[in-house]
Amino acid sequence: MGEALAAIDLSASFGTHKVLHHVSLQMPANCVTAIIGPPGSGKSTFIRCLNRLHETVPRATMSGTVLLGDEDVYRMDAITARQKIGMVFAQPNPFPTMSIFENVAMGIQLRDGKRQTYLSEEVERALVIANLWSEVKDRLKESSSKLSAGQQQRLCIARALALQPAVLLMDEPASVLDPFSTLRIEELIDELKDRYTIVIVTHNLQQAARVADRTAFFLAGEMIEQGTTTELFTTPNDKRTEDYVTGRFG
Ligand SMILES: Nc1ncnc2c1ncn2[C@@H]1O[C@H](COP(=O)(O)OP(=O)(O)OP(=O)(O)O)[C@@H](O)[C@H]1O
Q1: Has residue 151 been placed in a domain?
Q2: Which of 75, 147, 149, 179 is deepest in the core (most CB within 10 A)?
Q3: How many domains, the chain?
Q4: Is the ipTM of this complex over 0.95?
């Protein structure tokens, strides 16, 4: 099951450049929360703070609290935090020299050791949940680079799911995909929320409207407004949100 994620008073900088200012946001369990906003508004930085990827950037700093359920993510071991809060990126990035099977198995092997009797079962399970199993079950030993871009992205989702996360962060997960592959990812997101909490960054407002239960609007490193997706798109409280969702800028 997914767990709720909460950001409390989160600020983040790259060196002296402060890019996120006191953001607080609740991301309820088993909901899809979309983060929208114009380029450079801090959306990616925000989700990279949620799973502690931000701290891997030289000279990057952050302050504030991130809670997964009632656990402080910044008091966990960073590797554990990134297993519990998985992530997929805009550009599908399977390990090109590894097979389809190895891509999904590798995280489990790093965590639990090389030879696990349950490895095949776990790989199958993750590929089934990512809606990829039926397309790859007879070619698990083939290189992941033989898959289409949409399949590669679902492989990356399976790779994250193999570690049984509670949360899946998705940073523009369909931005380089064709419309059909995008639709498959959106359908998958809708299915995944029964098991995981999902946070998706998207610059595509129609996509946020289609997939998200809740939406937060970011501008210049601030979280301007958040609410149910319907509220945010139809009756925004802030003029800047209204201007953005009606396409006046961005
Ligand atoms: N590795 C980095 N080093 C220095 N500055 C960075 C780095 N990554 C992002 N920034 C800066 O932080 C600010 C926020 O960027 P971020 O990528 O979080 O915004 P975004 O809303 O996700 O943008 P986009 O929609 O273009 O991906 C921008 O000013 C960006 O230039």
Answers
A1: no
A2: 147
A3: 1
A4: yes
